[in-house]
Design brief:
The protein is an alpha+beta fold. The protein has a domain of 161 residues: Serine Threonine Protein Phosphatase 5, Tetratricopeptide repeat. Helix 7 runs antiparallel to helix 8 and helix 15 packs antiparallel against helix 17. The longest helix is centred in the N-terminal third of the chain and has 30 residues.
Length: 561
């Protein structure tokens, strides 16, 4: 953590003017004044100021060239063969070209958070231009924003350390040229983790408790606790727990998760499919959501991901056969291509989350069936359009009721934290500490009880194993299914140190032949290899960007890069 005085390049207010926010809960006034002094005399300008910090949050819909981050995992393949996501898949990425280089974006968020905190913590509230009738509410709002800025700073640091390992901790924007954090040595991963969790604790002191659903785009104390559970779980995992001594991190994960058990969150009330494509009102009664990024009304995500047989569609994100095969049967049994009944009708009687996440051959959509077979209008090759490379298209997060030509724009929500993830974090931590079926400290649930809450919403039978190793595989499988396409798989396989055997292996799709015998139509499915993937040991962490290394500023590069 470093304290070196630097001249700021821009005033904080000027940075706000240069920012853009695509959400319906924080809006900018283009005529806003450009001096810090005036920003901090008007509550509407203060809202714009915190909005500049929120603007740096990730939006996973178009993470890389219009496609989901899932395309760099065994969840999906990009139909856009020129996408830079292929650098990840063929192993050609490095410190000069990284499809997901988030270094500057997150340090910009940290800079903005630091500036907001400095101003909000020292401002004299008396001379502000408050409406007298709203004075108490506005004072409470500024207090809440103080906490939210601390939480956001912690979030941005977590986004950095999960990619790069330990990074320089910069507490004050007056102490650094934020465009060049690499001029300082790196703090250790543990120091960064402890800083992140301490910032969450400080944030909770100010933050609102369980804000109403219409304000969910703002962070509340539940978001800070959810970040702590994720941060401690990552810290305890194999990638970062190199000495095997971090049981305390698993315990901290479980403790913080247990605090969320009594805060009104649950995974019931809204089914899994409607969770990701809520119509009016459904998002407001969904208690699985802890913190989300709200998008402006759009249908661009549908254009990017609809099957290519629909006019204007691009079909970018193609789920893999590897993921499809991972979905259980409705009775909890494993899908098996060697079972002739399953192989003849491979999409029947599957886990409900399969139908909410995957568009497959024959599924009805907008008045017709999706045709992923060879020669079908959504099949692999459509004249000058490349169709699905795997035999599948994405459904999760995508509104499948929108006409891309005449239909209107729709609301979209990108979930940063869900209660289902918290339950799975808790289940993993408790199993590592005590096994599947014990709660010796009275946190409120066993690992089995937590995972079975998640499975119950999907209608999947409860797990019953008492074997720690078996449960470890079960919870990893459950995360793969429940959190598919939510930007977890890419990081999970890294923190578990199993990337070579998962995202480093070839991915598969299905070749589908339509067979017509009189009036009878059937399909023959043949699993095929789609793409070889490359993963090397050094790829568990990102390389520090070349802009930092080549300046010879003192920051060290990650091993192997």
């Amino acid at each position: 953590m470093y304290k070196i005085k630097k001249q700021l390049r821009l005033s904080f207010a000027m940075l706000i003017l240069l920012s853009a926010v695509s959400c319906d809960y924080l809006e900018y006034n283009d005529e806003m004044v450009n001096t810090d002094e005036i920003v901090w005399t008007d509550v509407s300008n203060i809202k714009n100021s915190i909005g500049a910090v929120y603007a740096q949050l990730p939006n996973g819909y178009k993470q890389i060239d219009g496609g989901f981050m899932a395309c760099a995992t065994d969840e999906a393949e990009s139909a856009n063969t020129s996408s830079s996501v292929e650098y990840f898949n063929n192993g050609s990425w490095n410190m000069f070209k990284n499809p997901d280089n988030q270094w500057n974006k997150n340090y910009t968020g940290i800079y903005r958070a630091n500036r907001f905190i400095e101003s909000a913590d020292t401002v004299t509230l008396a001379p502000m231009k408050w409406d007298a009738d709203n004075w108490p509410e506005n004072i409470a709002l500024v207090r809440a924003f103080r906490g939210e800025a601390r939480f956001l700073r912690a979030f941005f640091y977590f986004e950095l350390i999960k990619r790069y390992g330990g990074v320089p901790i910069i507490e004050s924007s007056d102490e650094i040229d934020y465009l060049n954090p690499g001029q300082f040595p790196r703090d250790s991963y543990d120091d960064c983790l402890n800083y992140i969790t301490s910032q969450c604790d400080s944030a909770i002191h100010y933050m609102r408790e369980r804000i109403p659903s219409n304000l969910r785009g703002f962070a509340d104390d539940g978001a800070a606790l959810a970040l702590k559970t994720r941060a401690f779980l990552y810290g305890a995992s194999a990638l970062n727990n190199t000495d095997g001594v971090y049981d305390a991190y698993y315990d901290s994960c479980a403790v913080n998760a247990s605090r969320l058990f009594s805060m009104g969150y649950n995974v019931s009330g809204v089914n899994y499919e409607k969770l990701f494509t809520p119509t009016d009102g459904l998002h407001d009664i969904n208690n699985d959501v802890i913190f989300d990024v709200r998008q402006g009304n759009t249908k661009s995500y549908e254009i990017d991901n609809y099957p290519v047989g629909f006019e204007n569609a691009k079909g970018y994100t193609n789920p893999t056969q590897d993921l499809v095969d991972a979905y259980e049967m409705k009775d909890g049994s494993v899908f098996d291509w060697n079972d002739p009944v399953m192989a003849a009708d491979p999409y029947a009687n599957r886990d409900a989350r399969f139908y909410a996440s995957i568009l497959y051959n024959g599924v009805p959509m907008l008045g017709r069936n999706v045709e992923c077979y060879n020669g079908g209008i959504d099949g692999p090759v459509q004249s000058d359009i490349i169709g699905t490379r795997t035999g599948y298209y994405l459904k999760k997060y995508i509104r499948t009721d929108v006409d891309l030509i005449t239909g209107g724009n729709q609301k979209h929500f990108w979930f940063l934290f869900r209660y289902a993830e918290v339950l799975l974090n808790y289940a993993e931590a408790m199993n590592e500490l005590y096994g599947p079926d014990a709660d010796p400290n009275g946190y409120g649930k066993t690992a089995l009880e937590a995972i079975n809450e998640v499975r119950a919403r999907a209608g999947q039978p409860a797990l019953t194993t008492n074997d720690q190793d078996e449960f470890r595989e079960k919870v990893r499988h459950e995360r793969r299914i429940e959190l598919a396409f939510e930007d977890h798989r890419f990081w999970d396989v890294r923190r578990w140190k199993i990337a070579e055997e998962t995202i480093g292996e070839p991915i598969h799709g299905v070749d589908i032949e339509k067979e017509v015998n009189g009036e009878e139509v059937s399909y023959k499915y043949t699993v095929k290899e789609v793409e070889n993937r490359v993963f090397e040991e050094k790829m568990y962490l990102y390389p520090i960007p070349s802009s930092e290394i080549l300046n010879d500023t003192g920051i060290t590069q990650n091993p192997g890069w």
